[in-house]
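Progress note, sequence design subtask.
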């Protein structure tokens, strides 16, 4: 079984709560790191990285990711699988919903890692997002402000997709 490390940034606690739910489903509760206090070198102990960020303003990364992401990008990520998740507001920020995930992916592309966990955006209500490529979401997108009733089902669907790549 591949060793999973989950790294997240959270300002209001929503992304932290989602991170804990995902960690429980993937049996990696002991390997959860808040990027506010994590060392980028911590990623070296894992085969799979689950990376989570909320989206702020006009598609911006969560504050703690601003300093962590460039340091993460300087790490050797060759052979690692990366899955992305995040929180956003599809009603108030319909044109940048969960766009922070796109920022993370762009920064880490070309570093020898493989992105996993893309899935169908059916059932979501947003206009545009940097978290969408080729008609699929590049990771799990959660809207706790407007669609919290769908959170658990979305986590389950996404975790099942990620698990296909863990053997």
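Output:
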């Amino acid at each position: 079984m591949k060793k999973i490390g989950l790294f997240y940034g959270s300002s209001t606690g929503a992304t932290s709560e989602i991170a804990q739910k995902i960690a429980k489903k993937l049996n990696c509760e002991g390997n959860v790191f808040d990027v506010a206090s994590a060392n980028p070198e911590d990623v070296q102990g894992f085969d799979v990285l689950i990376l989570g960020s909320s989206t702020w303003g006009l598609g911006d990364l969560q504050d703690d990711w601003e300093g962590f992401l460039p340091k993460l990008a300087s790490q050797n990520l060759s052979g690692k699988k990366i899955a992305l998740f995040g929180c956003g507001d599809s009603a108030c920020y319909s044109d940048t919903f969960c766009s922070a995930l796109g920022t993370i992916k762009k920064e880490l592309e070309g570093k020898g890692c493989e992105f996993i966990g893309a899935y169908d955006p059916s059932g979501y209500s947003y206009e545009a997002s940097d978290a969408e490529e080729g008609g699929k979401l590049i990771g799990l997108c959660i809207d706790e402000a407007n669609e919290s009733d769908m959170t658990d089902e979305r986590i389950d669907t996404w975790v099942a997709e990620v698990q296909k790549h863990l053997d």
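Residues 151-163 form the longest helix (13 residues). Work on this subtask will continue into the next period as scheduled.
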